[in-house]
Each structure stands twice: as structure tokens, then as C-alpha cells.
Design a protein that fits this description.
Elements lengths: L1 E9 L2 E7 L8 H11 L8 E6 L5 E4 L2 H8 L9 E4 L6
Parallel strand pairs: 2-3
Antiparallel strand pairs: 1-2, 1-5, 3-4
Length: 90
Amino acid sequence: MTVTAAYIREQGVRVAVVQVKRSAVATKARAVEIAAEFSPYFNDDPVVLVSEDGRGRPEYVGRRDLVRFLASRPFGSLPWRRWSLRRKEQ
């Protein structure tokens, strides 16, 4: 699976910001489920999901402190890149 994400460190916390379709964050329960699915691919660090609202603006879903921080930064300033995610072998 390939996703577009920014993997950043802020105030000593690593966080993955993963771009998803708006339907993925339509309900809080589904957003929490999707974030939990992505977390193992990013060293079990917190995951914030981001989609575009109806006006094309970023809408973040995740931990409140991280969402507040991300909402205060220009969307384009995050180090976006394509990530190829593969399940860890057990």
C-alpha cells in the first residue's frame, strides 16, 4: 500500500500525518480505527489523519494537541512524501 504522509517530530513527539479520503474520517470511530491501522507502519507513533473539507482546506483528525499544532502550520510546509507501507514479518 502506498500513502502520502509527513512524518515529523514536534516537541519531542514523532507523529505521522497521513492523507486520506474525506470518507475515511466521516465518523470518529472509523477515523480512530484507520489511524490505529497506520500506527504500526510508523513505529507505533501517533497518527493524525488529514483530508480536504468541502472547500479544499485541510481537516485534521487525531490527538487534540497534535491537531491544534498542525492546524496552525501551513499545509504545504509539512515534509510530504509517498510511503510504501509493508506489513512487518512476524
